[in-house]
């Protein structure tokens, strides 16, 4: 699937933007699951191999195949808090939320059957690191940029 940019067209469109975002991620998850199953079959690993095993093992394998990790950097404090007002009602209506890991007002993990939102600051990054340091450590050319909050004080400047 091609990368997609989600843009809020009006202040009234927040719920629709979050719905579209979740649908897009779910479509990626479904596509990735098919590709993963095909990839495992190339190595002779199939769901049928787990029939003899513990039911829990089968469920864990299926979860690993069908659950797309959605990773953010410090998203528990920023990204998820922006989305949660509309995201939780949408996921709850679908009976999709399986578990949540929360620390104070920060959502460290939100897990559904097809998506797992993770904040890498809580799970993968040593204390004191920043996004800029993280990207430099892996030799990427892309650097964190600064958003001109003071300049963008109205939607008209974005047109």
* Form type: globular
Strand order of the largest sheet: 1-4-3-2
The succession of helices and strands, N to C, reads: HHEHEEEHH
Into which percentage range does the β-strand content fall?
Answer: 5-15%
Question: For the CA atoms, what is the radius of gyration?
Answer: 19 Å
Q: Are there runs of 5+ residues with pLDDT below 50, and where?
A: none
**Overall average residue pLDDT:** 81
Q: How many beta strands in the DSSP annotation?
A: 4
The biggest beta sheet, please?
4 strands, mixed
Class by alpha and beta content: alpha+beta
Count of DSSP H/I helices: 5
DSSP helix fraction: 40-55%
Alpha-carbon distance between the termini? Answer: 28 Å
Describe this structure in words.
The protein is of the alpha+beta class and 159 residues long. A 4-stranded mixed beta sheet has the order 1-4-3-2. The protein is 42% helix and 13% strand. The chain has helices at residues 14-42, 55-66, 79-93, 120-123, 131-137; strands spanning 68-72, 99-103, 106-111, 115-119. It has 5 helices and 4 strands, in the order ααβαβββαα. α1 crosses α3 (79-93). The two termini are 28 Å apart.
């Amino acid at each position: 699937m091609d990368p997609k940019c989600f843009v809020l067209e009006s202040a009234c469109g927040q719920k629709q933007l979050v719905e579209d975002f979740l649908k897009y991620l779910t479509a990626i998850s479904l596509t990735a699951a098919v590709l993963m199953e095909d990839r495992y079959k190339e190595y002779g690993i199939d769901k049928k191999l787990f029939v003899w095993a513990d039911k829990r093992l089968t469920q864990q394998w299926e979860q690993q195949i069908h659950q797309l990790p959605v990773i953010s950097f410090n998203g528990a404090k920023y990204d998820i808090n922006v989305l949660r007002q509309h995201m939780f009602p949408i996921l709850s209506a679908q009976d999709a939320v399986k578990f949540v890991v929360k620390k104070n007002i920060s959502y460290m993990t939100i897990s559904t059957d097809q998506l797992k939102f993770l904040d890498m600051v809580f799970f993968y990054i040593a204390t004191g690191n920043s996004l800029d340091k993280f990207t430099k450590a892996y030799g990427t050319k892309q650097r964190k940029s600064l958003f001109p909050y003071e300049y963008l004080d109205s939607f008209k400047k974005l047109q």
